[in-house]
Amino acid sequence: MILHHVPGSRSLRVLWLIEELGLDCELRLWSLTDGSLRSPEFRALSPAGRIPALETDGRAIFESGAILQYLTEREGRLAPPPGDPERADFLEWMHFSETQACILQALNIHHIFLRPESARSIPLMRLDTKRLAVTARALDKHLTGRQTLLSAFSAADCMQGFNIEAVFRFLPAADYPALAAYRDRMTARPAYRRALARAGGDAIYEHDFYEVPDATG
Ligand SMILES: N[C@@H](CCC(=O)N[C@@H](CS)C(=O)NCC(=O)O)C(=O)O
Asked: Which residues form the GST N-terminal domain (predicted)?
């Protein structure tokens, strides 16, 4: 398998699941900022020019959630199958992570990628921070008294890889104790540590925490 990857991006979800499943893959590195994701070579793998894409079984698969679902179904592990009482919960949390990831992506664009800084919209940054807080509160509530998103560790937890550290770049961990404890548990998993070591240093964040700038200055 070949995983098309950018450090600190959603491809961590795939790499983490691959490690949990005890599979192997080759990593092919791309950059979010050098224009290469718009090349015909990459667009042939991922038509929207987005990371990740996984080459496996004679084809390329794009969309991280689809890749995770494909791998769990192929391997018959780490996801409740259709008909299982937790199937709907599995699908909900898989897609919820992407809802949250889109908000994180908007905040990344405002705080990090959009230049000059005067091009940023402070009202939108505030709005997205509030929308992120809604998702973090929902996760915090769900995880209170639970170890994992479902009754056991699953690919739904791997979908949180990328979100899990990024959320606390924009929200104080102290306000979401169950989510912060979940982050600590998940990031201590040997497969997560192996995935992170392979994934490479974070290419996105320079600061531990990003405040919404004051509108006056
Ligand atoms: N829903 C897609 C989103 C993919 C996505 O937006 N990936 C980001 C990196 S985390 C990307 O490639 N960004 C480049 C861009 O927006 O141009 C998935 O889950 O795979």
From this structure: 1-79
